[in-house]
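We emphasize that the prediction below concerns an isolated chain of 239 residues; any contacts that depend on oligomerization or on bound cofactors are therefore not represented. The input was used exactly as deposited, without trimming of termini.
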Amino acid sequence: MAKTIFHAAGKRGHANHGWLDAHHSFSFAGWYDPAKIHFGALRVLNDDIVAGGEGFGKHPHDNMEIITIVLDGTLEHKDSMGHTQQIVPGEVQVMSAGTGVTHSEYNPDPHKKVNLLQTWIFPDKKMVTPRYDQKTFPADDRQNKMQTLVSPINNNDPGLKIHQDAWIYRTVLETGKSVTHNLHSANHGAYIFVIEGSIKVGEQVLNKRDATGISETDSFEIQALKDSDVIIFEVPMTF
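Result of the prediction step, given as a token string:
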């Protein structure tokens, strides 16, 4: 019998700083829930809306795999490795913080908000040389199928690479369609987050911004109750 948890969208941590309206799936900054520290190696899933012309000032990270997915608007990234890049919907950015990196994130459009998902995954190797990568993922490649956004650095699967035995997928399902995913290891679980729409995983119905974690199973099926956009994090449960 699979082990499952359900995280309702309205039960996420929430902090509105004016320039930043943030929802936290897991304990973060000033919000702490002992039942929501992490899901396996998935440490952070923040759903951030940044006002026009605002952003995160320069700040440090180390020994963390950081993945940014822009859902709407434009985000500008600058870091101590010399990168200045803009990230738009359809693109994914990964940054291995490793021995240490500083970066800032800014909304360059004074009139339009930017909505992004920022994810932190614990690495399987510490003190690596910091690295950065960014890629566009065509929307057609996730229509009614799983599109690989991120995969392990020592694996030949497509997607941007991170230092962990973890995968991130995205799928856009039409009403009535479904996808089945086979986990890579008995030690793995999947955290399924609904960007838009309504889905069913097992007996659990999930709507916009709801999430479920599933582990101790070989596979699972996602059924679309209406047109849906879904992101799936497959991560080690112990690491």
